[in-house]
Amino acid sequence: MDDELNSKLKPLRDRIDAIDAQLITLLNQRAAIALEVGEVKKHFNAPVFRPEREQQVIARLQHISDGPLAGEHISAIWREIMAASRSLERTVKAAYLGPAGTYSEEAMYEYFGHSIEGLACQSIDEVFRSVEAGGAEFGVVPVENSSEGAVSRTLDLLLQSQLVIGGELALPIRHNLLTLSGALTGITRVCAHPQALAQCQRWLMAHLPHIERQAVSSNAEAARLASHDAGVAAIASDRAAAHYGLQIAYPLIQDDPHNRTRFVMIGHTPACPSGHDQTSLIVSVKNEPGAVFKLLEPLARHGVSMTRFESRPARVGTWEYYFYIDVEGHREEAPVAATLAELERKAAFLKILGSYPRAR
Length: 360
Hints:
360 residues; alpha/beta; Chorismate Mutase Domain, subunit A; D-Maltodextrin-Binding Protein, domain 2; 15 strands; 25% strand; CM_II_prokaryot; Bifunctional chorismate mutase/prephenate dehydratase; Chor_mutase/pphenate_deHydtase; lyase; CM_dom_sf
């Protein structure tokens, strides 16, 4: 049986080995050209990472591919190829909400590839400060969750900061219940970030109704605590389980099987048009009848689609609000540019957070 199997597999494996040899030659040729690109960028002081260019490369390859690789496979492969090429030019650093094992870290690697250097931060505030001070070129921050809504602190800091949004990623959130032993014997409390506890509330009520729930700064911190205390169960990711040496007692305990968190990438450099973009802005209007209608009417008239509308109190002692709006298109495209110009005339306050490639 083994001899027959090997005899059938050997010619196929030989063909794969030959293709791999071609691939490594071509990848090294590609990397050499990427180094030449890096030298040109260095001469013009251009940024190493251009999200719109990488989006265009992946989209083109997905379009010309006739399978069997699916679009997400091509995206994952080429993200790492481009990340490795970037690292040959210069190491790029991104700040994220730590410690290691958080969904923010996972989003960072998913977006930038594994050749990025991560800087773990203790809070979303610290992520912003690190990028503003030059400790990292980019920051990765959660902005909203499909179950729990907006991440308020991120919205507040986007209003205050001069950093711009350069990209986004919608990450599937898969919560697991982790323990040292892989069982629930002796468990006295469940630790997790407050949003994770909320996202798993129905499961916890059904399976652990009498166990104490403790909110901590991140799910990775919960995993760290569980790794030192057999009485603690943590709600966290597969990555956290592997990093902290924990076992999965129950997988996928989130109440919404389609639970996702949207992350945005913040930095100093605006993204150029990619052909598949989104613009985020903050607007406030005078407290008068019809003010919100006057705010939205230019979007409809110029044919600009709104994909998100979120209100936040202005915190100035009166009943006034900031509106966080996402619209389709880049600020340099004519319909969006005309809309923004009109909003600037009509609104009491307008801040453009960035135009950037939309998550596919």
